Amino acid sequence: MMTADAAQRGVACSGCGGALPVNLYNDPELAGCPNCQSMVEVRVFPALYQSLKAVPAESELAAGEANCFNHPQKKAVVVCEDCGRFLCALCEVEIGGKRSCPDCIERGRTQGEKQELITRRTMHDSIALSMALLPALMWPVTFLTAPAALFYAIRHWKSPTSILPRTKIRYLSAMLFAVLQIGGWLALVYGVMTS
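The chain above was modelled as a monomer; its predicted structure follows.
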């Protein structure tokens, strides 16, 4: 049974915007809108049939109660564990068992301070290995890239690798290939100088 509240709210026709009659609600067949005759099918949730309950107005904060930093009219329920701001239930975000405010979460994401929010990393080990191997296809450029690959591998040895655990094998491989290329160049120069 449709209540008076639901009848007042009604459902508008998508064609003309006019109110559709209640007898079209949840009818399995397409029916014509009484105003514009466009074919419509109206599906409504059972909540439309329930009467609206009065929503209580926001209560004033009692003396001595803390309010939310972002919503001064709301009562604070928790403190941000990063910055100490008072937060309402709407602003509180829990990540890894720690409650933080949206500002601290955004700052942690952009500055890489919150490990739980890091979704990607630069793979320095793969870059070092590529710097050592790819130029080997055009061997003359290894004169420059081999020392660069060796320096890069040593420079980023302690940098975080993938989010997933990885070994240092790529760094070691890059250093090995770079040292071999540098050794090859030294042998070539020595051979040219002594002949």
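The longest strand covers residues 93-95.
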